[in-house]
Amino acid sequence: MRSLFLFILRNYFLFLFLLLEAFCIYLVVQNNYYQRANFINSSNGISANILAASHDVNQYFLLKDANEKLLKENAELRGKTLASFSVLVNDEYTVKDTTYHQKYTFTSAKVVKNSTNLRNNYLTLDKGSKQGIKNNMSVITSSGVVGQVKDVSANFCTVMSLLNSKTTISSKIKKDGSYGPLMWDVSDDYSIATLHDIPTHVRLITGDTIVTSAYSTTFPENIMIGTVESFVQKTGEFFYTVKVKLSTDFKKLSHVYIVNNILKEEQEELEKKSESDTKNK
């Protein structure tokens, strides 16, 4: 406090000048209509600019919360779309509200670690067993396929990326349903994968859309994978080898959706039982 008084005492001429200057401006503005109008307009403009700048700053810091809310809402909406439901067909009768049966649920997650330059690339997400995440769940974005959950802890999980030599995805050509396994080429190009076993009678063209097929208990059907970049028929083979330009930019991943197939265990248990019965015969 003593330092403040000393500072004012040393500079009291300056403060007195500023005070008198302000008083003079006040008198001029109060006693002259033109000056008063200009002062009010100028002060309103300055106040508006300050308020606008303050609003922009506040909005910037609120973006994170807004994005989190949007991701949660998108996950809920995805879980309510018809793509998340399987159709129940009954030749004898139809019970109200049972035409569709929910098959998938979606959980939004943030990518906290990612790699694209390894032979076997992985991601780490900020969701784990406490949020209901289990291994082998699929991971997607709004632009397409990302990978499959590998290991899970209480609050995190790792994802085996599509850019992994061990990842194979059952895929199909959207326009006619021709399907085959899709794998990454394990190359320096993280944007290209290879689709195998497409019959040569299929009329392929560059730009054809590639999506997930129904022959997977992990990924929902018709999730975007990419587009046909090129295709060749190797000598002596009756299938095309198709190069696919991936729709997901793995260098820019920040938020994803973890997909849970509610009916997966039931389907796999039934298939294992059928395989076991076949082997025993």
Largest sheet: 6 strands, antiparallel, barrel
Instruction: For the record, give the distance between the C-alpha atoms at the N and C termini, rounded to a whole number.
Output: 97 Å
Radius of gyration from CA coordinates: 31 Å
CATH topology of the domain at 100-263: Thrombin, subunit H
Mean pLDDT: 80
Give the total of beta strands.
14
CATH superfamily of the domain at 100-263: Rod shape-determining protein MreC, domain 1
Poorly predicted runs of 5 or more residues: 85-99
Question: Count of DSSP helices?
Answer: 4
Report the top-level CATH class of the domain at 100-263: Mainly Beta
Percentage of β-strand residues: 25-35%
Order of helices and strands: HHHEEEEEEEEEEEEEEH
Per-chain topology:
Layout: H1 2-10, H2 12-31, H3 33-80, E1 85-87, E2 100-102, E3 104-114, E4 120-125, E5 138-141, E6 144-152, E7 157-164, E8 169-173, E9 179-184, E10 192-199, E11 209-212, E12 224-233, E13 239-246, E14 255-261, H4 264-280
Antiparallel strand pairs: 1-2, 3-4, 3-14, 4-7, 5-6, 5-14, 6-7, 8-9, 8-11, 9-10, 10-13, 11-12, 12-13
Helix pairs in contact: 2-3
